């Protein structure tokens, strides 16, 4: 009678969950950003779910293993490992097929702020070894807690009088389970708040950057969770495909909406128990209980985390590089071992190992809003499948169905292949052929510092030739006074100093230093004239008063030392090399470079990089000087192997020439200062120092650095679309 009542209640609860999900999405779309105000409800709900789960895992796993004999315990672990191995193979096959979704293309990348950072450390010891079990509990270190629980369970197996401890522990398990069931009853309220907050605040524009990863990961995730795993379990057990899906509905929906598979462990256990009761699968052994099987599998690598590694081939596709075959074995090893921990640690390690830009990890973090939920969907079904398969093997109730197995295998593989090929075709047609990273550079314009900024209001002139200022400084007159009297600030520029000064696709002069010049002219309330710099004669131009200030990433050097201001440089850049993609491995470090019979480097004439290259690279590495950076990229010097340039500028050039890459053979040791140079004018230099200090203090400098150097989009954020604002017009 109790089972019948339970079956009647179950659909009602699922219905309420679905209703709350739909209402939450509708509420979020209606309120938009105002949905942030109900986030506290979702935080409270998730906190209550987490409250008793880890203690439940610890006590239930320890108790259920402790009730076994030594022989049955070893058998449990052996069978569990074999089942996990089969599930891991399914995950690896899915990963391989999903990686086919990314076609090869060439592109470039902005400079990464982590270019010189050492690779992150991975603390395997603290992850798995519970040196302090209480600390592991406090920090939710699930693998260490499980190791501790298994160890206690095996210690209890042969302990005399263990029943005296196990009986009260069983009461505690029942109490913790009851607490979890009480909290689960709040699921409709919690899911409503989570759905409303997510739908109202998610940035849809960010997700468009990740369409390749989301398609290659989320579509296979749905297939794995709703087709592959249920069909696989149905082919080897007495259970039916639709019975498995029906029993999995509540934990799958809850894990997907919450974005957390850990907190639904009690729901998974209850769903498996209910399925066992409905199908008549008995349980006479403690080791067969879902209470021990689910916690046992949770800290192990799951299909969701294995398939999530498709982000690495996505990152290679997005950055326009190819991962060489020799990198795949270590990548797979690190990826699999990293699946024991958190992807936020594993992904940076794999990016470094694959020699992909570290800043791509930011895309992974952005994708967490959507992709992580699909990962939890797969993990939840992974746990359900593991529990059912292990239970049936241990209890001897497996039923091998060859026809279903063949149909399921072939059908699942074809479905995954069709999904990957379809994603690949979509990316080629809608993304790759119409989106160029070069556009990020050539279509860039000045970024507003304030909402009222209009740089067109500052009158500017770009001179074709360099001539002395038509209004010389009068006796007793300062440079500032001359600028304000004439109403014009003259700025020297070099148009080949990306991303500091260059012409965009509309032939507009833009860049970090150019925008700083506009801001300086605006603050002085004057117009601006841009005067071309003759790189070989810049010091004479300064002495002859061709411009008040040179603002085009002028490197400090010994020859220009007399013109250095007494203040610190406005920026320091990192010396690096730009090399053809196919030769990147040869220029990874100086030791590898020395193994080549002859190496020739190029550097721009009269630049500090030319001086440093001759001084810091070994004598058998030849350095030749060229007139402009363009000469190297145009291939005029066939004998040159690499270009010495700053990583900040070199990264930007790879956007225009994507078959080149930036390397860091000196490990970021050499930092080159950049200055704004004037004609040794102490008063003007002091003014510039004070002005730069103010621009740093008010955030202007950092905003421009993030935009021009790191490539971050800094446009004013538009209010999130909502019915309340955009349809009804009730709020501004």
**Category from helices, strands and their pairing:** alpha/beta
- Proportion in β-strands: 5-15%
Q: Over the alpha carbons, how many angstroms does the gyration radius reach?
A: 32 Å
Q: Compute the number of helices.
A: 31
As residue ranges, the low-confidence spans are: 1-11
Mean pLDDT: 81
Gross morphology is: elongated
In total, how many beta strands?
Answer: 13
- Percent helix, as a range, is 55-70%
Distance between the termini: 57 Å
* Major sheet description: 10 strands, mixed
Could you walk me through the main structural features you see in this protein, from its secondary elements to its overall organization?
It is a single chain. 57% of the residues lie in helices and 9% in strands. The protein has 732 residues and is an alpha/beta fold. Strands 1, 2, 6, 7, 8, 9, 10, 11, 12 and 13 form a 10-stranded mixed β-sheet that branches.
